[in-house]
């Protein structure tokens, strides 16, 4: 589904991604872990098409197409979804309007009819259940004045509405209380299907107890230092990253 | 001296014979005033960022009556769904009874055209006309000298007029190179309430000049809601001055929406004469191409314990130029004044610019007065966030622009007007294929 090869990317003059290769197939869950500032969010944003990151080398193919050639909105319409580490507040645009606009754009791209506000309300009633949110948040401005946890939940709500093929969750677990963590993780699991895939960026093994990964990757200093199964997360939890960085340093 | 041409035009039209009557007297005084003042220049502090030489260089003759070609469909483009509103339509400055309509009105409420008022209530005009609006301003003097028609509204003590009164000033092709000087006089007596909407619209008027003056007397405990919608043609010039005076416990709410004219100046002034009066001056303007719009507000806190609230926002595309000057004067008497003013501009076009100047003159010590101004561009993060949800660039831009305006549109208390102005704004900022 997604094939990243030797990807390098800059912010301004600074190189952040220094050659990333990663293959994600339908039905898989990949976890990406790594120290602060290692480039995890950068990778997520590059996949989503943020224009502030300049891709300087490598390729990314998504469903056989050149992903890097697509505008961000086209990527979203084609089924890519990024749950932001820091969801953006948009005062003045209601959640309901925003969600319906996004939903209809994605439907249009799939050759489906747009839905009107009444139909959309029925759809929302179902989706809100997935993240255990109440409909009063629909009238509020997008993320505006939301608590940290509410913002994260709102990201998963958007994911539930858009039903992406490839979801990238960037630290969706950070700042969540235990109950919210369970709700968000169960939400992600409910949305899982054999034909979609998920990349979860996290610092905590505990999320991976709920969303069980098929692969765990360690990203540090702009490179994937190690990949393994879910037991790698446990090992990281116990030993931290230093031993990996040292090994990498020795081999470099 | 370009402004002297107006003296000639005045002399050609004005009947000198009845100069002893109040109206000719007022007008003669006004043209003499205008003659002495001339058009303002950018050396004038109040006109620093706005040159009116495009107006001064031309000679706009008073509009002449012409055969009426405006239809009800034309009118419908500028009315706001609620067909039950009182509607007074003026075409090229003249009242058109066939396009106007009145709903039921309390017998004591007077809604008259200028001509009717001269016949039916000359003493009212003689007493009030020209007493509020500052004759020391050139454009106001010009309006007084040339005013030919307009509306007089008087709501007597304790009467609440539930249905809004809509005054629609339309121009058509006959208005080209002409000037219109409509005049509004509103008197809300003690505890009276009334809502007025004044709309300026063009049906292809070319280069014309609207110079409007409104005087509003808000009596003790009275409330006047006053909406002004300026949708002049893109080649037109528009200058408008609204001056209110407020007695104790009164509320005056003035909302200005401006989207038209190549060059416009909108003045909204209120004098708080009685304790505990409240004034709200809000506005939204949206410019494109090389449009220029200048707004000046002036709140004079004369009496103690009054409050003033101001929110103005501007959206500037192309190479347009916006000017906002918010003046607040607090008299030494006006203790416990509570004033708050905010002014925000959103620059969409690379060549767009805005000049903002708050001006506080405070002579009392127990006073709370704040002002805040921002000039910004569309939030890049928000644009990307929208795109990442599949919403395309143009649409994202339009939604964010609309969101910027929403806060101030929310202050419109007439739902049908709010919806209509939202639509007008959408038409400007959302390309048709994305609607
Ligand atoms: N817009 C930017 N301008 C300047 N530097 C940036 C920008 N975005 C990212 N960086 C830098 O790139 C590096 C990688 O940042 P990134 O956000 O990808 O890290 P991360 O792995 O997600 O970290 P965390 O675990 O703290 O979220 C950091 O050093 C960061 O300061
Ligand atoms: Mg990050």
Protein described:
The complex is a heterodimer of chains A (252) and B (435). By secondary structure, chain A is an alpha/beta fold. Chain A has a single domain (2-251), classed as 3-Layer(aba) Sandwich (Rossmann fold). Chain A is 38% helix and 28% strand. Chain A has nine helices and twelve strands. Chain A has helices spanning 40-48, 72-77, 95-109, 117-130, 148-162, 178-190, 205-210, 231-239, 242-251, and strands at 2-11, 14-24, 29-33, 54-62, 65-66, 80-83, 90-94, 141-142, 166-170, 197-201, 215-220, 223-228. In chain A, helix 5 (148-162) runs parallel beside helix 6 (178-190). The model of chain A has no long low-confidence stretch (mean pLDDT 93). With 435 residues, chain B is an alpha/beta fold. Chain B folds into two domains: 4-274, no CATH class; 379-435, no CATH class. Helix content of chain B is 22%, strand content 38%. Chain B contains ten helices and 21 strands. Chain B is globular. The interface between A and B is medium-sized, with 31 and 24 residues.
